[in-house]
Design brief:
Length: 597
Amino acid sequence: MNPDDDSDRLYRMRHSAAHVLATAVLDMFPDARLGIGPPTDEGFYYDFDLPRALTPDDLTTLEAQMRTHRQADYPFEYAQHDRAEALAYFREHGQPYKVELIQDLPADETISTYTSGPFVDLCRGPHVEGTGGIGAFKLLSVAGAYWRGDERRGQLQRVYGTAFETEADLAAHLTRLEEARRRDHRTLARELDLFSINPAVGAGLVLWHPKGAQVRELLETFWREEHRRRGYDMVYSPHVGRKELWETSGHTQWFAEGLFPEMQLEHQTFINKPMNCPFHVQIFASQTRSYRDLPLRFGELGTVYRFERSGTLHGALRVRGLTQDDAHIFCRRDQFTDEVSGALDLATFIYQTFGFTDYTVELSVRDASGSAKFAGSDDLWELAEEGLLEALNRRQLAFTRVEGEAAFYGPKIDIQVADAIGRRWQLTTIQVDFNLPERFDITYEAADGTRQRPVMVHRAIFGAMERFVAVLTEHFAGAFPVWLAPVQVVLIPIADRHVDYCQTAAERLAAAGLRAQVDARAERMNRKIRDAQLQKTPYMLIAGDRDAAAGAVSVRLRSGDDLGAMSVDEFLDAVLPCIESRDPAGLGFPAGSGSAA
Ligand SMILES: [Zn+2]
Ligand SMILES: [Zn+2]
């Protein structure tokens, strides 16, 4: 890249802001050693080796110093150097990390620096013209980061920041960050008592508490019912199996870094399953299959174990034990396009249920050049890709084509959904595979009596239960739709003498299929209402003397609406249809009905 490079202005502004940050850090700590400082999708960071830990106050001081350098508007000046010259400069200036970076550059690589006022950085650019062009910026946080991601090396302090063209854009971004923080599933999971991850159990391994388990069970029941309706059979398979299975499938070769360590038992080697596929293949192979039996669709909520570095784990979004909503479809070549189309239909149906209306689709194929990462013959890859294309076109789904991102055994369709605040989450994957049937040598008997290879379609709609519940928690900010709410109704007696009346009403609700609890604690009514609201319980039914005499309850919604008194039957008439239809947003009463409490 050269200084005239015309790439995205925001990217150049953020990269330039990183340099200005380093300038300010050197003002504060003249002996600071500098790591790298790149722009990112959301801002920029710079890694520093400093004599002490940075505090929030330091960030404020650094911002003020950055404003001074922005005011000075030093031009960014580009220069090329030979290796010896560059090494000498950074050695002299006490920058061992920069020296290491230069030493690791290939021999033919151009070595360049950018100078802005007092600061010189090893850098390829591009930048804005001068430090005055870095726009509106903010330093956000400090976190530990290993030099070049290597856990054996010392930790540096990574300062994160962001920059935008205008103060208004920056303010909007900070509001979005705040909104994302408010929705953080790790915080909500604790507050709503959904699930936990505990170092005593192990990093990346999720414990489902009763309320989180209730949400998951409802999702699983919905998933199973919808799959049965669409001709899937459910199967179960173990959590460990002989390593040979994944040697045959190719996972030990192509997925080696993701496997848990092996176990030796009676001269055989076992691993925790990283994928469910070989088990489902074995179920297919357990009897002679005829062309008339196909397609066979085996579904399983199968828990798999994958090694992820502790630094990459993130709440329930990125874990080491995950329950895939997996299925493998075994079909004939003339059937797989229909099967992919059916899986796309199922995925979009399921998205609707959660109010996900905006999603992006990617078709991932092999890279055209080196196919060493990918198994199988060219014509089968082409056939698989054609089928996926046809299925996408049939459903008129717009997509982008991504080269080199296919699974090792075949091309795939990935779908990302946008949540309530516009963040995109990878959920669904649908993969066509001519490869595993070959490797496991599975066949079916064709109409002409010959033995033929089935095609496999691997697919998951939610992706994984852990991740999906985390995504839903953030999407709904913990206020799950009524059908998913772990507790749907809290009954609140105004005084102790109303507890029995509430209990009787709760039994009526339970008989109608609702999850209702009586809050009989010795707390004031207002405290109980506030607690139920904090738990995002959809309905609070309050009962006092007048309600009891009239056989009624006073209904409050978690939205804050106070609907006044109604009979339990009236309440059920409004609420049950909303549960049956799995309404993603409504509470069964028109929005704004009643008076705001
Ligand atoms: Zn740079
Ligand atoms: Zn699979």
